[in-house]
Amino acid sequence: MPVAEWITFVVAISILTITPGLDTVLVIRNTSRGGWKDGVTSSFGICSGLFVHATLSAVGISFILVQSAWLFQTVKIIGAAYLIYLGICSLRSGWKAGSLGIVSNQISDNQFNMKRSFSEGFLSNVLNPKTAIFYLAFLPQFINPEGSAISQSFILAGIHFILAMTWQSSLAFVIERAKSWLAKPKTNQWLQSLTGCVMVGLGLQLLLSKNVRL
């Protein structure tokens, strides 16, 4: 791939990465829940899901997903339901934080569970039809038909992985530095409730929308 195309890809994927969305919300929410490790592990799960979309795009399954109405709707409903579930969990955490009324000196690390954090990030990405459609529409523009579509897709997804992990981990670190502010029950309640509402809203929007638009 020519250097100009590499630059175009990096710039485009960087803009996509730093644009606030579900990934940002999830990293903020989980970092406020269990600290920097929670946020970074969630980010690792999110970014690992990119390789699933790269594979699906390479073998053409994403194309079938778009063309098959019932299959698309099934994935759409599952993804939306999972977002709503995460949002409800965050809202419940917010209500509990507000009801405790206790000020802590730090984010509670005992709430960190590596398997839970990774699976939340991974599933939120894999079950997002918007990511599948983006990879279907975007990656083929940078793939040489004379080469291996799968290997090239994995390289491009790897670049996206590095950029997204760097950005989201930095975000988690900044939030961790503000732990004395986040540890206040009212602040934690506000943040958990806000991110919960955003997740539920994203899930409902995805569930009710007739078409997924990028």
TrEMBL record:
The chain crosses the membrane at residues 6-28, 40-64, 70-88, 154-175. Its main location: membrane. The keyword Transmembrane helix applies. It is a multi-pass membrane protein. It holds the Pfam family LysE. It is found in: Cell membrane. The keyword Membrane applies. Keywords: Cell membrane, Membrane, Transmembrane, Transmembrane helix. GO terms for cellular component: plasma membrane. GO terms for molecular function: amino acid transmembrane transporter activity. InterPro entries: LeuE-type (IPR001123). This is Threonine transporter RhtB. It comes from Photobacterium frigidiphilum.
